[in-house]
Write a structure and sequence with these properties.
This protein is of the alpha+beta class. The chain has a single domain, classed as Aminopeptidase (3-Layer(aba) Sandwich), CATH 3.40.630.30. It has a 7-stranded mixed sheet, with helices on both faces. β3 and β4 form a beta hairpin. It is globular. The protein starts with a strand and ends in a 10-residue tail after the last helix.
């Protein structure tokens, strides 16, 4: 995308990330386990990046954050082979392929770190995001009814999509398609 710079999130990015998060519609944040509009949550996020449990990419247009993708992994869990992909994109750049690009970039990072399965959470009414993930090879794996509550206390369902990285790569190779490593 022209005019967009993507790089790893680092110390000092907190004010720009906080401004970005606070501009997102609250419904867009429901799939995240924590409210990233809160400074204490952002501090914890940076701590997890420093510990190596999170890898976050930021998309900038000038000094403004317009997108973020994070790979969450826990090598000490029963599922060290599973990574969670979290992607949020500013309203001003939606429909331009930024979410897909960030998802593919994090997918490549997942492959490089040995992740075998990627999961993504979202509310089922986020049809654009669901469609993007499905076109990338993700499939619906679970629907958790009334799993999250918004700020008004209204419950919402959460869908979990997953991607078997090895199967996806094998199928892509069989059909002569680019893999996660080759896509851009």
């Amino acid at each position: 995308m022209t005019g967009i710079e993507v790089r790893y999130m680092r110390a000092g990015d907190e004010p720009a990330v906080l401004a970005f998060a606070r501009e997102l519609p609250p419904h867009d944040l429901l799939f995240l386990p924590r409210d990233i509009t809160q400074p204490k949550v952002l501090d914890a996020w940076m701590h997890e990046i420093e510990r190596g449990r999170l890898t976050s990419l930021l998309a900038f247009r000038g000094a403004e954050v317009v997108g973020c993708a994070t790979l969450v992994r826990d090598p000490l869990s029963w599922s060290p082979h599973v990574g969670e992909l979290r992607v949020v994109v500013a309203r001003t750049v939606r429909g331009q392929g930024l979410g897909r690009m960030l998802s593919e970039d994090v997918g490549r990072l997942a492959v490089e770190t040995g992740i075998e399965k990627l999961v993504a959470h979202m509310t089922p009414d986020q049809t654009g995001a669901v469609t993007v993930f499905e076109t990338m090879g993700y499939r619906a794996e679970a629907l958790l009814r009334d799993h999250v509550k918004d700020g008004a206390g209204v419950t919402h369902d959460l869908v979990i999509l997953s991607l078997d990285v090895a199967r996806f790569r094998a199928r892509a190779a069989a059909y002569g398609l680019g893999t996660l490593e080759a896509s851009s």
